[in-house]
Amino acid sequence: MATNTKRAYKLQEFVAHASNVNCLKIGRKTSRVLVTGGEDHKVNLWAIGKPNSILSLSGHTSAVESVGFDSTEVFVAAGAASGTIKLWDLEEAKIVRTLTGHRSNCMSVDFHPFGEFFASGSLDTNLKIWDIRRKNCIHTYKGHTRGVNAIRFTPDGRWVVSGGEDNIVKLWDLTAGKLLHEFKCHEGQIQCIDFHPHEFLLATGSADKTVKFWDLETFELIGSTGPETTGVRSMTFNPDGRTLLCGLHESLKVFSWEPIRCHDTVDVGWSRLADLNVHEGKLLGCSFNQSCVGIWVVDLTRLESYATGTSTKLNGHSELKTVSSGTMPLQNDSGSRANIGQSSVLQSSENNLKASSGRLSVSQNSDSAPKETKSTPSGWSQAHHKGLDLAPIIDLLEIQLFNLVVPLPP
């Protein structure tokens, strides 16, 4: 293993499954756990930096195509080639839900940031919203003409975005229960999606080798990168909001968007990159090749975009417009090093999903009609700070399914 004096180095590589690995996800809360899914029908849990799995979860009868943690890292959802989704409680190491409804491979899953439900996308072209407590699908969004590869809830939980093999990105309003907008500028299938942590800004990465930035107040294209040398496999905004980190084949690129600029390119030896996450000044990248998983670390404090007086070079199209929501204050990167190798096994937490004060509850007042949101606050964090009322979202979904509002069991 290379020393961490380099800008990028391999932390570890290990055999994760008895056959090919199909998917993986990093735990966003701690960046210390990793879940993988394979052709062997298994879902395996790993402490990053450790050689052996924490848990090996059985139950699926077909290849596992998608996996994801909830925000507390207590639950894992895994979608299979059969279309079935299973939900595991990691603290009890058991299946707590088996959900059926997709007619083909479940290719993506994403948990709501606050509530007890999650979304799934499938090759059957549908996006489904699942209620964890009720054990069923509470809404199906139809509109894609080919499979759904990527899904992501907005940071405030009001919308969900889906990206498909039809090259289209669709924005769905959970409160109104309908399509809000669709973005059609890509010329290849959508492979990854991320939201700016502060501004109403969406980034989409595609097999067409471009990254596109979208203003979510006006729904206009801000600009586009590239084309790059390969398709965009994974992306994540830096938590400070200054740059977008994009994973390509064996490289990382650092972009800003006003105007579109590439600040730096880092050669990284990852193969099929599947997920990126930033933690304590480090970018963690996880890739897979056949039955093996590789974990890579990039020191963000060594990137050119964080050096004083560094000149940036234009890459791609010129600036088209300014994000209408304005720029939030930037935070200085602390430059602290994450001791990723010293991983801890899952621990119980007061804010796990079972005891979360942010869990969704269905309103018992059926006379309260949900209202479609016409405008949004000036930033995701501000919307959350003001106290997002999620009841109308779940009310609307329940009404559409049952035609009445039923109180949740205690």
From TrEMBL:
SUPFAM superfamilies: WD40 repeat-like. It holds the Pfam family WD40. It comes from the Eukaryota. PROSITE patterns: WD_REPEATS_1 (PS00678), WD_REPEATS_2 (PS50082), WD_REPEATS_REGION (PS50294). GO terms for molecular function: microtubule binding. It is found in: Cytoplasm, Cytoskeleton. InterPro entries: KTNB1, WD40/YVTN_repeat-like_dom_sf, WD40_PAC1, WD40_repeat_CS, WD40_repeat_dom_sf, WD40_rpt. Residues 356-368 have a biased composition (Polar residues). The keyword Glycoprotein does not apply. Keywords: Cytoplasm, Cytoskeleton, Microtubule, Repeat, WD repeat. GO terms for cellular component: cytoplasm; katanin complex; microtubule. Belongs to the WD repeat KATNB1 family. May participate in a complex which severs microtubules in an ATP-dependent manner. Microtubule severing may promote rapid reorganization of cellular microtubule arrays. This is Katanin p80 WD40 repeat-containing subunit B1 homolog. It comes from Zea mays (Maize). The lineage of its organism: Eukaryota, Viridiplantae, Streptophyta, Embryophyta, Tracheophyta.
